[in-house]
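Consider the tokenized backbone below.
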């Protein structure tokens, strides 16, 4: 006589948490972040929405009764106005020059500071110092202490060189009037080179030492090591420095306003300074708001690439 053994019946899992309790626990974890989220929305998003609304109006504060809705006409004006096109071109030239020169100089300084020598800590502190100076103070320093034609450091140095060779004082050069764009570029390069140096120095110190040592043992020259090992390793750090530098330099206002005030003849007028002139000299609120929206959207596009680069660096560090 055979007996049938019944298979055990599957019982429903009773340990699963109800969906409602899971949702409640999630919101409990998010509640402490709500004040920061609300503050961010109030401080950043609401003014941006107000700017978008203002950009759809033809609004001159000197003619308060003539304010009316014009749709996207202000954006059309931004892309067709000659002054704004010049400002866009000046912004591209200024940003590209400052970022590229700062990256090259920052890479050279980072490679020097990556070596061991006496006083490296002091040298690193002194090289970082320009980045810690307030932008307006740095601009005033370059305008009066260095570029001034009467008592500035540049003309004083040139006169000393002329006298050293037995000649009279050299010609007095008004650097700001004669070379307005290079004057602004040099002051910004002085300020942003330490920023690039710090990023690239972090990349250099993250290099695997065993790979470099193996390359030296195999007889690779320093130039070959830099070209085939160091430079590919620094690619993401270079991209990060260029993207972050572009985000900040494209918004430069203080150096242009303090050193040249956009002149002479709008040679250094960039987009932020042109927006300032449109807002506070022409009193065209709608046109200034439209230009500001375009600048913000462009900065968001650049910032998106910067965030992707940062995320890739974090993923690379985690995978090691």
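A designed sequence for it:
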């Amino acid at each position: 006589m055979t007996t049938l053994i019944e298979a055990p019946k599957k019982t429903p899992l009773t340990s699963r948490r109800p969906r409602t309790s899971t949702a409640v626990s999630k919101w409990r974890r998010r509640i402490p972040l709500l004040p920061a989220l609300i503050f961010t929305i109030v401080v950043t998003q609401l003014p941006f929405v107000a700017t978008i609304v203002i950009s759809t109006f033809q609004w001159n504060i000197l003619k308060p009764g003539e304010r009316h809705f014009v749709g996207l006409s202000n954006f059309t004006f931004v892309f067709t106005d000659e002054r704004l096109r010049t400002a866009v071109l000046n912004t591209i030239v200024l940003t590209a020059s400052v970022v590229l020169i700062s990256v090259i100089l920052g890479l050279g300084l980072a490679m020097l500071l990556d070596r061991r020598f006496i006083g490296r800590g002091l040298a690193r502190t002194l090289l970082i110092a320009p980045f810690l100076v307030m932008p307006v103070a740095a601009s005033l320093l370059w305008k009066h202490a260095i570029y001034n034609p009467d008592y500035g450091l540049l003309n004083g140095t040139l006169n000393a060189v002329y006298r050293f060779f037995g000649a009279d004082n050299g010609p007095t050069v008004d650097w700001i009037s004669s070379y307005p764009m290079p004057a602004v570029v040099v002051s910004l390069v002085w300020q942003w080179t330490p920023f690039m140096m710090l990023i690239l120095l972090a990349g250099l110190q993250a290099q695997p030492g065993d790979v470099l040592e193996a390359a030296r043992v195999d007889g690779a020259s320093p130039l070959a090591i830099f070209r085939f090992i160091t430079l590919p390793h620094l690619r993401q750090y270079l991209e990060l420095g260029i993207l972050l530098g572009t985000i900040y330099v494209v918004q430069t206002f203080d150096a242009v306003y303090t050193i040249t005030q956009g002149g002479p003849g709008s040679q250094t007028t960039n987009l932020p300074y042109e927006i300032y002139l449109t807002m506070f000299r022409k009193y065209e609120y709608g046109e200034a708001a439209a230009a500001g929206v375009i600048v913000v959207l462009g900065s968001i596009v650049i910032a998106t690439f910067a965030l992707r680069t940062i995320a890739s660096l974090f993923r690379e560090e985690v995978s090691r």
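The radius of gyration is 29 Å.
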